[in-house]
Amino acid sequence: MQYEIKIATELQVKPQQVKATIELLDGGATVPFISRYRKEATGTLDEVQVATIRDRIEQLRELDKRREAILKSIEEQGKLTPELKKSIDAAETMSKLEDIYLPYKPKRRTKATIAREKGLEPLAELIFTQTSFDLDREAANYLSEENEVKTIEEALQGARDILAEWINENASLREKMRKLFLEEGTFTSRVIPGKENKAIKYKDYFEWSEPIKTAPSHRVLAMRRGEKELFLMLDACPEELSAIAVIERHILENAANSAVDQVKLAIKDCYRRLLKPSMETEVRLLTKKKADQEAIRVFAENLRQLLLGSPLGEKSVMAIDPGFRTGCKLVCLGPQGQFLHYEAIYPNEPQRRSAEAGMTVKGLVQKFSIQAIAIGNGTASRETETFVKSLGLPKTVIVTMVNEAGASIYSASDVAREEFPDLDLTVRGAVSIGRRLMDPLAELVKIEPKSIGVGQYQHDVDQNALKSALDDTVMSAVNGVGVEVNTASKQLLTYVSGLGPVLAQNIVDFRTENGPFTSRAQLKKVPRLGDKAFEQAAGFLRISKAKHPLDSSAVHPERYDLVEKMAKDLNSSVKDLINSEELRSKIILKNYVSETVGLPTLQDILAELAKPGRDPRETFEVFNFQEGVNSMSDLKVGMKLPGVVTNITAFGAFVDVGVHQDGLVHLSHLADRFIKDPNEVVTVNQKVQVTVMEVDIARKRVALSMKADPFAERGKNSGKPAAKPQKSEEPQGTMADKLALLKGKFGK
C-alpha cells in the first residue's frame, strides 16, 4: 500500500484511485482503455493521470529492485547493520540510495586503496580526530621501505587520500553538495580556442553563464549540443569557495591545529578530484533529464495537435509533389485513398510546359471526378499552386497546400514499399501528401514520429523516453478518434488499445480473406485476438455499416445490454434512441446506476447516442497564402500576412507564410499580453495573421509577430514600422534561441 499512498499524495488523488489504476495496469489494461471505460474504478482519472501513475509505479519498483540489490551486496560483505538497513529502507530517491551505498560499493584501485595497502589508514583515522598531537612524529611511524613510504609528506599525502575518500562518501554531505550545485550552481560555456569560425552558430554561447536552477531546457540542450560537437566547453558548478565552505562546515571541528590543517587540505583535494566531478556529472544528468522532459513534452503536444488536424474526409483527391527541374509528381486517389493514376507534369522552370500540364490536370480532374487538389509545401509549391489556380477549374474543387514534412521518409520506408512495391519513391511521396489531406492521423502514423518535424532538439534527448512519450501520444490520438476497422491500415490498427503489430496484421489478413467485418463480435474470429485484446480494443474500433447500430459508436460492447434495456424501457429500439433526441431526453440515468456502472459511464453513453462515432477533430477549412508573396524577397517589414503554425517550441512558434522558409514568432510577440507557454495562444496547424518584423535573406531568417501593433515600442509616432527595426533588448541568450532556430526547426 506504500506505493498507492505515495503516488496519491503526489497526484493529490485518493489512494483507492491509484490502487485500482495499478491493478488495471498490472492486468494488461491500456491507458486509453482505463481512462475511457473504467471511470468508476479510477474515480474518473484522465489519460494524463493514468499515464503518470503507470510511469511512477515503474520508477518506484525500479527503486525497490535497486534497494534489494544493495542490501544483498552489503549483507554479503558482512557489513549490514540494523541502522544501515533502516537508512537504506528509508531512502526515497535513487541518488540518496547510491550515496548510502557508495562506501560499500566495489571500487577500482583508487589513491585511497593504495594508501590503505601501505598501512596508512590508522594515521588517517588519527588525523580525522582533529585533535592536537605531534603530526610529524606520528607520521614518521609509518615510514617503511617495504610499503614504499619514504618521507613524512608521502605518509601525510596517503592519509589525506583516505580522508578525501571518506569525505566524498559522506551521504549527508553529498546531499548538501547536491543541493548547493542545483541551487547555487552556474552553467558556464566558452568557445574552444581556434574554433570561433566553425562554431559561429553557437556565438551567443561563446562566453555565457546562467544559474543552473533557472536555465530553460532549450538552452541547456543547445549548450550540451555545442559541447558534444566540440565547439564549446561547458561547466556546471557553484563557486569553488562556496562549495569548500559547505564541506568545511560539515567536516571541521572548532579547532586550529596541524591535524585540522591536513583535513582542510584533504577537503580541497576531495572537492576538486572527487566531489566536484561526481556532483557535476549528477547535475548534468538531472538537468539533462529535466530538459529532455520539457523538450519531449513540447514535441508530444505538437505531435498531438498535428495528428488531430482537420481531415478533408472521403473525397477524390489529386495530390501534387511539386518541383522545378524534375517536374511535379501528380497522383489521383479514390475516396478511400486508393491509388488510381500517376503522371509527371512540367509547369515550372526550366521546361515551362504549362499548357500541356494544364490540359493534363483538367483532364484528370474530370476523369476521376476530383474534389480537392493537395499541393506539397516544399520546393516550387507556391509556383505550382499559382499554376493550378490559373487553370479555371470548377469552384467546387478545393486547392490547398499540405505540409509534406516526413513524406520523403515515408516514401523510402518499408511501409511504403509494402503498400506500393511497384511505385517510385517520388510517386509514393505524392500519395502520402494526398492522403494527409484526407486523413492526417491515418497517414502520419506510418511515419516515425520524430521525423515529422514538429520537435525541439528531438535528436538530443533520451531516445527511449522520446519514443515512449510519442507512442503514448499517437495511441491517445488514434483511440480518441476511433478507427474504422474495414479501411484502416496495419499501422493505424497497431496503435489501437490492446492490439499491436501482430494482431493488426492478423485483422488486415482476416478481412482480406473473408471480406469486410460486419460486426464487432466477428473480431473474435481473428487469430490470436482473445477476450482480453477484444475487451481493450473493441470500443475504439468502428464498423460503419454494421448490423448493430452501436458497432459504429464508442459504446463498448460490454454495455450493449444496458443500452438495449434503456431502449426497451422506452418501448423503442436502440436505433430509435440514436435518431430521437426526444426519446433520449426521457432516459433517467440514475435508474441504471449499478455496482459496475456509474454516472460517468452513463453520461458517456448518452453523449455517444447523440452523435455515434463522432469525429472529435475540427471541420476542415481551406487555407490560402497571400497571393504574390512566394519567396523571401517578396517579404517587406510591416507586411501583414496569413500563415499556418507548423511548430511550437518553448520560446515561440514557427509559422509558414508561403515563402519556403518558416518565420519565428518569438514568445514575446505571440500575444499582446504576457504569456509563459506558447500553447496558451497557438496550436499546430492553426491559421494565424502575422506581421513581418525582420527579414534576413542571406541567413534565411524571418521574424514575425502576432501582436496587434508590434511596432508600438519602435515607432511611437504613427504606429507604422520604423525605417530600420531595432533589435530586442532581451537577454543575449534569448536572442540566441531566435537566431539558432530561424533557419528552421530543431532536429534538422
Q: How would the blueprint of this fold be written?
A:
Layout: H1 2-11, H2 15-26, H3 31-37, H4 39-42, H5 47-76, H6 82-90, H7 94-101, H8 111-117, H9 121-128, H10 135-140, H11 152-168, H12 171-184, E1 186-191, E2 207-211, H13 217-228, E3 232-237, H14 240-251, H15 258-307, E4 317-321, E5 328-333, E6 339-345, H16 354-367, E7 372-376, H17 381-389, E8 398-402, H18 407-411, H19 414-419, H20 425-438, H21 440-444, H22 463-481, E9 483-484, H23 490-494, H24 501-514, H25 531-537, E10 541-542, H26 560-569, H27 574-579, H28 581-585, H29 599-610, E11 640-649, E12 652-656, E13 663-666, E14 687-696, E15 701-705, H30 732-742
Parallel strand pairs: 4-7, 7-8, 9-10, 13-15
Antiparallel strand pairs: 1-2, 1-3, 4-5, 5-6, 11-12, 11-14, 12-13, 14-15
Helix pairs in contact: 1-2, 2-5, 3-5, 8-11, 9-11, 11-15, 12-14, 12-15, 13-15, 14-15, 15-22
CATH topology assignment of the largest domain: Tex N-terminal region-like
Write down the overall mean pLDDT: 91
Give the C-level CATH assignment of the largest domain.
Answer: Mainly Alpha
Terminal CA distance reads 46 Å
Helix count equals 30
InterPro entries: HHH_9 (IPR041692), NA-bd_OB-fold (IPR012340), Ribos_protein_bS1-like (IPR050437), RNaseH-like_sf (IPR012337), RuvA_2-like (IPR010994), S1_domain (IPR003029), S1_Tex (IPR044146), Tex-like_central_region (IPR055179)
Keywords: Coiled coil
Coiled coil: 135-183
Domain S1 motif: 638-707
Keywords:
NA-bd_OB-fold, 30 helices, disordered C terminus, structural constituent of ribosome, five-stranded mixed beta barrel, alpha/beta, 47% helix, Arc Repressor Mutant, subunit A, 4 domains, five-stranded mixed sheet, Tex N-terminal region-like, mRNA binding
